[in-house]
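Fill in residues.
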């Protein structure tokens, strides 16, 4: 089944500013390309350094057309970049991520941090609640497509 929807994107007014992710459970391993964080009203992705550089440009950069996040059973794609999930852990968490994204509530994407993780760690956050408008400005939306 193919689904799509629009996700509102936000960028911090000042480089390096971000909200704390908040209380969550995690499937975190610093050796993995994607670590998964699950909160009550949000899901976060901690990406490896190489994956983060690609994702930041594709998902948080400015584009002429609406950027796209693509999810399938074995792939997470950012515009023109596809990442093939590593194993059952990623596949299980990606399914949970997909269910969250398709649940019907308005979605917002922005970066967060958390004191449990190294200080330079940024968490790509998808939430049902808007981030603080005093810290983040809304930008062009993101299109989510699933297969």
């Amino acid at each position: 089944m193919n689904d799509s929807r629009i996700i509102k994107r936000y960028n911090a007014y000042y480089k390096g500013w971000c909200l704390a992710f908040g209380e969550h459970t995690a499937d975190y391993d610093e050796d993995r390309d994607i670590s998964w964080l699950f909160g009550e009203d949000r899901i976060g992705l901690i990406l490896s350094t190489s994956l983060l550089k690609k994702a930041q440009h594709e998902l948080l950069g400015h584009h002429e057309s609406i950027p796209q996040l693509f999810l399938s059973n074995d792939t997470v794609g950012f515009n023109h970049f596809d990442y093939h999930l590593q194993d059952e852990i990623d596949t299980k968490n990606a399914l949970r991520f997909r269910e969250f994204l398709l649940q019907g509530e308005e979605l917002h994407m922005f970066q967060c941090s958390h004191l449990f993780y190294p200080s330079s760690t940024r968490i790509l956050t998808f939430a049902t609640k808007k981030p603080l408008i005093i810290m983040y400005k809304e930008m062009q939306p993101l299109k989510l497509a699933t297969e």
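Residues 88-101 form the longest helix (14 residues).
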